[in-house]
Amino acid sequence: MNGKWESRFDPRRVYGNKICEIGRRRPETVVLVADLAVSFNLLEFADSCATQFMNVGVAEQNMVGIAAGMALEGKFPWVNSIAPFATLRCCEQIRTDLCYNNLHAVVVSIMGGLSGAPLGATHYATDDLGVLRSLANMTILVPADQWEIEAAMDAAAEAKGPVYLRLGAGMEPHLPMPRPDFRIGRAFPLREGKDVSLIATGYMVHKALEAAEALEREGLSVGVYDHPTIKPLDGDSVIAAARGRRLVVSIEEHNIYCGLGSAVAEVMAEAGVPVPLCRLGLPDVYGSVGEREDLLKKYGLDAAGIVRRVSETLKK
Amino acid sequence: MLTRLDLSPNELRRKAITIRQHVIKMISARGKGHTGPALSMVEIATALYFGVLRVDPENPKHPGRDRFLLSKGHACTALYASLAERGFFPVARLDEYYRLDSLLGGHPVNGLPGIEASTGSLGHGLPMAVGMALAAKMDGRDHRVFTVLGDGETQEGSVWEAAMAASHYKLDRLVAVVDRNGLEIDGPTETVMALEPFAQKWESFGWAVCSVDGHDLSSLVQTLKSAPFGSGKPSVVIAKTVKGKGIDFIENRKEWHHRAPDPQQAEEAFRQLQAQLTALGKEAGI
Lengths: 316, 286
What we know:
The complex is a heterodimer.
Chain A: E1 8-9, H1 11-25, E2 29-33, H2 43-48, E3 53-55, H3 60-72, E4 76-82, H4 83-89, H5 91-100, E5 106-110, H6 128-133, E6 139-141, H7 146-158, E7 163-166, E8 172-173, E9 188-191, E10 196-200, H8 204-217, E11 222-226, E12 229-231, H9 235-242, E13 247-255, H10 260-271, E14 277-282, H11 292-298, H12 303-315
Parallel strand pairs in A: 2-3, 2-4, 4-5, 5-7, 6-7, 10-11, 10-13, 13-14
Antiparallel strand pairs in A: 1-8, 6-12, 9-11
Chain B: H1 9-30, H2 35-40, H3 42-52, E1 67-70, H4 76-86, H5 125-138, E2 145-150, H6 157-168, E3 174-180, E4 183-184, E5 187-188, H7 189-192, H8 198-204, E6 208-213, H9 217-226, E7 235-240, H10 263-283
Parallel strand pairs in B: 1-2, 2-3, 3-7, 6-7
Antiparallel strand pairs in B: 4-5
Helix pairs in contact in B: 1-3, 1-4, 1-10, 3-4, 3-9, 5-6
């Protein structure tokens, strides 16, 4: 890997740069914002692809409706907002206008999970995955680093129906290992382990890797599975990760209900894999006030918290 | 080939009665449907499909066609009947209304010839129409985009988000028609949540407004054809209508928002519509 993996990256910068490339490559691309062009690092796009850019003001419902109308006319819209507003304010427009009509459009959020901290739970998204996972036709992508964001955006551009792309905010690290081609619906096994499998998505993949190393030092063999696609979930990977292990742990910056953990549980139960599952996430609460890392620690979503939960569960 | 029909006033009125007959037939046959809202917009639909819209029933996706979105999707039987009469699909297909896996559901479904999108969730049609008009403007295409809203529907905030955007982007190929029948499910709009002064609301959002008698076909056709009413502005037609228009025991009764005529009522409705046809025939000297 080259030097860029050493440094951290800002998901918004990566997004803003990559969308310029997609916009130039695909002239039918239209980028819509609800007064957050700066937050999404979209000024370059607004400048270099001016005719493909539209600011609809603080009106997310209208933004998604407009996007649907454009998609009906052959445009390829990307709608952008802070995660709860990109997904929940306009949830019914996403459902009815985009998903029911099965239109090719990408809903992009920043501040996914707790990355909007310390703005408070109005600006956290810990329920977006669960809500959108229940919408038919929807694809859900939660990339874990720069390479996955760029690859996910290329994949979203080639997809058929509506796609949700959940990004963080603030500086995030790169994953140290190369991965094969990105495909929607494919998980990446990042390390193998015989005892415990950690199944994670987005920023939590980094915490899972850190936790796996710590657990390894305690004598456990721990695998880590990176799921940049939440829907459709890579069920084969989940089953392979679960079979014969002592414990499976799902880790997500989301309520423990309805997100990755629920999806993993569904797959394991239907496949009849008799292995205990721990779902790590927010315990059905709204995120508290604090910095992201402090919140992750509070909810046991940092490496130490994951290690603690694994150790406790295995002792039972 | 794209065509805009040019029916005589008498032919237009006959067409409207025929569409009402289809509406009553569909709804009474299945025992379910939004009778009042469909009947109130029959002249609006008739004016659009038989005097205003440039469409090609043989090629429903013709790129140059005028677009039509029924935002008040619950009035879909009036749309299905208009599409069938205009030749988008055989009239016999109206019998599929509410049948299992049919494309003639209780709200428009994407896939039926002539339907641009699945609609019917109130407050969604105008934003989508704005998107369609914006896409056309971006590509320099000059077809028009029409949408029909219910008046109660305009209590949805998303309507006004879209209204603001339409004038901001100077979408003068966009025409909204509000079926101003004055009644919503729970009663008069002015009692439930007052809309007046309605025209001023649209004007203040930057729209060119025209108020018409929503059952006067000639004036509807003339008005709709003449849009945009103001240069660089989106146009709205406030069509004053009577909910349940055409059947005396259905007119202006809120309980007919979502109710189907029973067999006796249907028979009476057909009798009234036939009488209207006969009167028209006499008027035309047939």
